[in-house]
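Data deposition worksheet. Section B asks for the primary sequence of the deposited chain exactly as it was used as input, without tags or linkers unless they were present during the calculation. Section C holds the resulting structure in token form. Section D is free text for depositor observations; keep each observation to a single sentence. Incomplete worksheets are returned to the depositor.
Section A, Depositor: J.P.
Section B:
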Amino acid sequence: MKILALLVAVSAACAATTTWAQDGRFALGAQVGTPGAGVQAQFAVNDLLVLRAGYDVLKWDGDDTYHDIAYTGEIDFRSPGAFVDLHPFRNAFFVSGGAYFGERGVDLRASPDQDVTLGGRTFTPAQAGELTGRITLEETAPFVGLGYDDTFAHAGRWGFRLLAGAVFGDAPRVSLKSTGGTLSDYSRFQERVAQEEQEIQREADRYEILPVVQAGLNYRF
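Section C:
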């Protein structure tokens, strides 16, 4: 009787797996969130494990102030990513781990129209010239998060995904230089610019962990 009961249980499990697999293991979708807007592909290994790959792009211009100097910032994030989503309860809830890759940075530009302070000294706009720089994020950044994704949790073709987590990495790298000023080519002035660069670096050091919030719509086939 025990052997018969075991055979019945195994048969039922196989039938359930077959039915689930017939619903489709692949899905394509689109998402929007803090990493930008993008597309993704999913493959359900089984009802516990889903492999996911995505590509997000974020381009945005805005103004920001570092050490009392107003910069125009241009965000340019191009972030392919690879993730493993674990559905421990075999439903829409999942735990995700993976990484983002690719070039992600912020270009800075300032053209002072009044006196500015660099490295503790004050300079005129003509002396300072144009300040240009870049804040570069790490190219490979691990990710962990929690979410809801019912794409493979029901028999329908359409699925909804909501994800919240964080990206971890080293502190962004900052570079800054002056061009076109009457003092731009002088080593003493360049030392002042380097001190301004360190001021921006100290602010950027706070962004080793970046939040991720994302929502997406998937089609299963």
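Section D:
Residues 158 and 219 are 5 Å apart (CA to CA).
The first strand starts at residue 26 and ends at 33.
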